[in-house]
Amino acid sequence: MGNGLYDEKATVLTMFYSLFLWGLLMLGIKILGQKYLKIRGWVDGRPSIVIRNGRIIRKELKKNRINIHDLMYMLRQSNVFSVREVEYALLEPNGSISVLKKAEYDNVKRQDLNLPPQQVYLPTTLITDGKIIWDNLKAVGFDIKWLKLQIQSHGIDEVKNVLYAEWKENEGIYTVPYS
């Protein structure tokens, strides 16, 4: 496609043909990858264990062209600020890292403390950049009158002065005004 854009002899039909052929090739590879595991591993890649039993596997870092600084950066993005906290770390085919912390550094969960489960609610965005998202407002069962009262109770006079607002069932509305 790139060459076709700069080649004076290439026609629009030639470009569409190459685009169609490329798309067909990609679709074929995806279908084959779904049917055959070996092809899937070859096309999509496999995760690579870069930390095993708390030890950094230098050979895997080298194979994936990652230095220790890159590894530390990826760990920090996973809210891990010290290698000593990590039991296993896998470098995923998409370039992200998955971390399994050591037991003593793992986050405490409700069931660990024998607390009853709580209902989890998904926040719904109601306003972005001063514009109401009408579908979301209707989905949570409110109207414009209610929304205006809510933002006024947060000291904001008009919807256009709201940068962001969201509704969460158990917490109510949260607003961020334009500063």
Quick recap:
This protein has helices spanning 2-6, 12-35, 37-44, 58-63, 68-77, 134-139, 144-153, and strands at residues 48-52, 55-56, 86-91, 97-101, 124-128, 131-132, 162-168, 172-177.
Describe this structure in words.
With 179 residues, the protein is an alpha+beta fold. The protein folds into 3 domains: 2-44, no CATH class; 48-105, bsu07140 like domains (CRO Repressor); 124-177, 2-Layer Sandwich (CRO Repressor), CATH 3.30.240. Helix content is 39%, strand content 21%. It contains 7 helices and 8 strands, in the order αααββααββββααββ. It has helices at residues 2-6, 12-35, 37-44, 58-63, 68-77, 134-139, 144-153; strands at 48-52, 55-56, 86-91, 97-101, 124-128, 131-132, 162-168, 172-177. The strands form 2 sheets. A 4-stranded antiparallel beta sheet has the order 2-1-3-4. It has a 4-stranded antiparallel beta sheet with strand order 6-5-7-8. A hairpin with a 2-residue loop joins strand 1 (48-52) and strand 2 (55-56). Helix 2 packs across helix 3 (37-44).
Question: What labels describe this entry?
Answer:
single chain, 179 residues, alpha+beta, CRO Repressor, 4-stranded antiparallel sheet, 8 strands
Strand segment count: 8
Please give the share of residues in helix.
25-40%
Q: Mind telling me the C-alpha Rg?
A: 26 Å
- Main sheet record: 4 strands, antiparallel
CATH topology of the largest domain: CRO Repressor
Q: Architecture of the largest domain, according to CATH?
A: 2-Layer Sandwich
**Element order, helices and strands?**
HHHEEHHEEEEHHEE
> What would you call the shape?
flat
- What is the averaged pLDDT score? 89
What's the total helix number?
7
CATH class of the largest domain: Alpha Beta
Query: Structural class, from secondary structure content?
Result: alpha+beta
What ranges have pLDDT less than 50 throughout 5 or more consecutive residues?
none
How much of the polypeptide forms β-strand, as a percent range?
15-25%
CATH superfamily of the largest domain: bsu07140 like domains
- Give the end-to-end Cα distance, rounded to a whole number of Å: 46 Å
Please indicate the count of domains: 3
Strand order of the largest sheet: 2-1-3-4
